[in-house]
Amino acid sequence: MNWHRAPDAFNLGQQVIDRSPDPKPPHFLKHQVYDDPKVFAKIDEHAIEVSRREHPTFRDLMWDLVYRVRLTELERARVIFRWMTSKDMKNIQFAQAEKGSPEAFLSNYKRGTFARIYELLCSFAQLNCVTVSGYAKGVEYRPGCVFRNQAHNHSWNVIKIDGAWQLVDAHWAMRYLSSENNSPENLVYEYDDFYFMMEPQQAVYSHYPEDPRWQLLRQPLTLEQFEDLPLTKSHFFKCGMSFEQATHGVVWTKQGKLQMALGYGKRASFTFKLHYGEELIDRFRGTELKSFVLQETTFNQIQFYFRMPMSGHYYLTVYAQEVTGHIGVENTYRAACEYRINCEEAAADATPFPTCHDCNWGPGIHVEKYGLAPSHKDGVVSSVNGQVQLYFRKSRPEVNLLAKLRHNNYAENALDQYNKQFEAPNQSTFQITLPEPGEFGLEVYANEPADGDTFTHMCQYLLHYEAPPGYVGGNQFAGTTPPREMYNYNYEIAPLGDLPAPYTDTEPEFHKLNLQGGQMSMPQGQQQQPHRQQQQYIPSTTAK
After folding, report:
1. What residues contact residue 321 under an 8 Å CB cut-off, 6+ apart?
2. Is the pTM for the entire model greater than 0.85?
């Protein structure tokens, strides 16, 4: 097909490489340019289409990918990025690849040269691009690991767009860990737009350049601060999550107990996994370790309560899911962040929390879906006399509710007699009389007329009946520490230091780069200079 071959008059020149770039924080951020990758739809489609073709020469490739269409600086950086994330770089082929040529450089692709290839392509697209090397918290990283005195393990790019340096990692943009186990053999490759124009205040949680200036922050982090941060994934920022005060990647229990919190600012739901030791054991004497953790989700915070059953170290992985109206990949849980929890001694009251339908406690997003307003916004409800009353106001009277009381020592229906339900116009009320001190789970189910007789789990509460002084009984759960009284990591740990806020208050300014929304046009009447002899590609020295 001759239409994607370079015309004879096409002259491919290389951008003069800036050997002494001046790193400065960008005067605009990604979210000020676009907030939806769909604005690049036509550009991305073009890049993917070109990636499906093999080209006889590098000159033909650059013509087909970049110069056959009219593109701005931003769009050139984007089309190269998407081509690399779509192309099988290990099997790229040219008709011939002379030593020192761009063809030879691309054909000899190795994992460590991914950033160099992006730099090469950008240089021939008349873009100023630098490869930086440093440390990255990748697939094999575990919280608590240190990088000091270690060789650099990653490289990425910084590219100048409209006079501002922007962070780019084309290699990480094409990988996603779908397994619960952080191991390379369990990787599934998928495009991740987070790594195009990474915002510096977010990128620094996973990327640490050898030269701190390439953090592009006004106050760069130290390597020690970077090491101490939790393992943070792109999905953490996509779901608007924040660390509150839980900024240390390694935390300690006190007497085997711990509570810590994360914040979030978007519609999202959460779950978690808890594993023990480097073998990633997920059970203790036949019981899932996650049964010793209570995850409570409120309006803008996720609270975790731990009662560790044995000493040693654990790994907590928090998964998040954006709540959209769509079904598909967008509605899957993905790893957001990970902590290491060190436990010097098991908790004296290390008993599992009540076994219920879900691992999340509190009203949650499904309550809103059914048009309900709960009386209790928190997932943990305490009582000193065993009496608990909860109600849900209804904006949709046709929604029916029912509740089931759960306890690990009682049969499934043995507690029905202690739960009374009362109906009033636009409100359902549950009056619970707990039979003895301890912890109980209250599951709430909802039904709509279209569901027939089916009730769907909507939310659940932990009911904690505090044992009175001198109480003697056979319930092993009666003496458990109320979750709110557990050692609170957020309040008692020393701060890590000044960290950049992961989100800014600035509003998007989509006009800033004259973004065309992926509208591309074919060059008309463009005067091309005669093609010069292909020059030898000499990569720049990696920015330190």
Report:
1. 239, 268, 269, 270, 271, 331, 332, 333, 334
2. yes
